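Teaching note: in complex prediction, the entire set of molecules is handled at once rather than each chain in isolation. The prompt given to students was simply: 'Predict the structure of this complex.' The entities are:
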Amino acid sequence: MPWTLEQMCRLAAAELKDGYYVNLGIGMPTEVANYIPDGVSVTLQSENGMLGMGPFPSENEVDADLINAGKQTISELPESVYFDSAESFAMIRGGHIDMSILGALQVAGNGDLANWMIPGKMVKGMGGAMDLVAGVKRVVVLMEHNAKDGSAKLVKSCSLPLTGKAVVDLVITDLGVFEIDQKGMKLIEKAPDISVDEIKKRTEAPFTH
Amino acid sequence: MPWTLEQMCRLAAAELKDGYYVNLGIGMPTEVANYIPDGVSVTLQSENGMLGMGPFPSENEVDADLINAGKQTISELPESVYFDSAESFAMIRGGHIDMSILGALQVAGNGDLANWMIPGKMVKGMGGAMDLVAGVKRVVVLMEHNAKDGSAKLVKSCSLPLTGKAVVDLVITDLGVFEIDQKGMKLIEKAPDISVDEIKKRTEAPFTH
Amino acid sequence: MSKKVYPNAKAALDGLLSDGMMIMAGGFGLCAIPENLILALRDSGVKNLTVVSNNCGVDDFGLGILLQTRQIKKMISSYVGENATFAKQFLDGELELEFNPQGTLAERCRAGGAGIPAFFTKTGVGTVVAEGKETREFNGEAYIMETALVAELSIVKAWKGDKNGNLVYRRTARNFNPPMATAGRVTIAEVEELVEVGQLDPNHIHTPGIYVNRIIQGARYEKRIERRTVRK
Amino acid sequence: MSKKVYPNAKAALDGLLSDGMMIMAGGFGLCAIPENLILALRDSGVKNLTVVSNNCGVDDFGLGILLQTRQIKKMISSYVGENATFAKQFLDGELELEFNPQGTLAERCRAGGAGIPAFFTKTGVGTVVAEGKETREFNGEAYIMETALVAELSIVKAWKGDKNGNLVYRRTARNFNPPMATAGRVTIAEVEELVEVGQLDPNHIHTPGIYVNRIIQGARYEKRIERRTVRK
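The expected output is the structure of the full assembly:
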């Protein structure tokens, strides 16, 4: 049985260690914040210039001057700190963020990541994604194992434009958890009652297990 | 009659325009602040991290956290602003300081400046001098026309290690004021009763007048 | 020094505009954009602008206003996904576009203000961003060279400012405004509250006034929220 | 997160020291130097240090203390004119010295913290500083390439800090501390006053705690003044 979104988020949350500074991508990765284990305290970075990002605000806390990188209104915490975009990306590029959890369109067996552009569709831009994958110490991808049309997202080589080369350290899908290092991709955990064969069938990239 | 130190300072002060941001070197250049003409308001930068540097403090204002680039205690003004060393030199290197007034050991006819080191004597270091002459919009040198042993300080080519190449825009000595541009050095004002011939005798660099 | 204070956005732009110029505009999404100066740019009729800004507003607010009037020729941005007018003009070939990774864009502005013509970064190595750029190894890792951005005019928005041009920002409304304030040959700041010199804490000025040539108190701030999200 | 707080300078250095390591030390002259951590470095007996610091203290205070004990092998500085011990050891060939222009030194630290391995600057073109460095033209002007500095350990001094390592500096006591705080693989901050998280204004933190691994409230601050000058 494939993992549910909640189970995937819990697996991602289990990667977080106490004291980590973490950047969560827009969409499913943002949900991971709701599953951080007890006793683990992490500080969320928002690349538009904030450490210690709080949850969505109550109605009367809404402030046009307080948004996250997805342009959503958020709230302040006692530990919040603000800074400008140059400082924010100095922090990211300089390797001071411990982990980033991001979505993906494709991940290759060597850790190449494509998550910013589908040729032929309107280009929106890479925002901070290329900086994050280049600079953050550990990059975790959280995504469905296959695209909506059933095609593999764990591929031999990305056909979509890259966000970064050999940047992904871990991939969590609804079928399994894959570690990527210089030797390649390795399945380290699989969803209950899912066989390695089934995963192989639905994966283009070679992997060990 | 050669100009007095005060007269030299007044000539240098006359170069300051209203609204200028100015960095004054240690020693005689610091004195220029005392001769800024009425109606001209300038902001002094101290490269250790301050704009709007005030005069020496009164006894009860002395503060170990408030010093200038010469490590002297100074005072705060209503318009003072503090920042760190990286920001301070971003400001200097980025061309945001309008004028720097500095002392010199030698200035060459093409604007080369030597003012940080005498080989054989103990090396103290260039401090911020190389950054200032490279980055500041207009560099004015204030110095005695000749060294204590009578040798020329306005030379054909600096024999001492350079602080910067072709960086000096104006030289004010006790004998004259010299403008330097791509065509070379030009005497534009001379001290009363000093002949061009006398200046030539005491100057190694060629100059027009 | 209070010669920096101008009565309004139109006056502050006086004498600085020419068709085809490059302008940097602070803000992230619609947060802390120079609303009043953008409206005055529209009214000025200046054309063929190259605009450096992280985003391009929405259809009817922020820089989107200058798209509607077709005053923008080229955008240098990191993300422009919120703007249908943008999509249309780009697909019609009316608009040029240069995407920069967000951190590279911020650093290019910072470098422009800091007298650093080029720097190396890991961001974008092996991607389309690296095309045509020098790649070099440092300590066994590949980096690409990025160059500085300097604009003929920078327009920024701050929370408070004093008459010397010193600026203070509030919360995440700081974003691109400080690096862009340093990178304009001329920089105009608009603020919600203009105060006397000496009223801001000298230890806590975000943008020293040396970077700001002209300053206005904005006539009116809509401060529109792009995605209002609240806790249930 | 209050795991960052250590009881004293000796405890804060525990497990981080090894002979021959590179240490960055904040401060300008004797202003805002990490007094307590320097004393603890002396007591640790660590040897053959390469120290990156704008200056090297005076004979009996600041980094001068580590010269007296001969714990420093090499200094990377911009100005060391205040120190007779320094002069003697250098002339005796006991001490290596690398001079950097002050702004280049600050920017090399900032670059080290910001993931920028190298950058170009006009500073030092045509001087001894340019020797052995790549020179390149941008827009018709010559620049030299300077590389980033990253230290195994950075020690900095702030006015106030909270238990997450957020730091605030006072007046010109900021100087090299913020860029150096970003450029240590491990950074220890010492502060005059350690406060609870939430007590510092989040809009006005100079060094975000992400850069600070360990923090102590200094036992005692002499804050010696190098050149006491007063108005007559």
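Point out the following to students. Chains A and B do not touch (no CB pair under 8 Å). Residues 104 and 199 of chain A are 18 Å apart (CA to CA).
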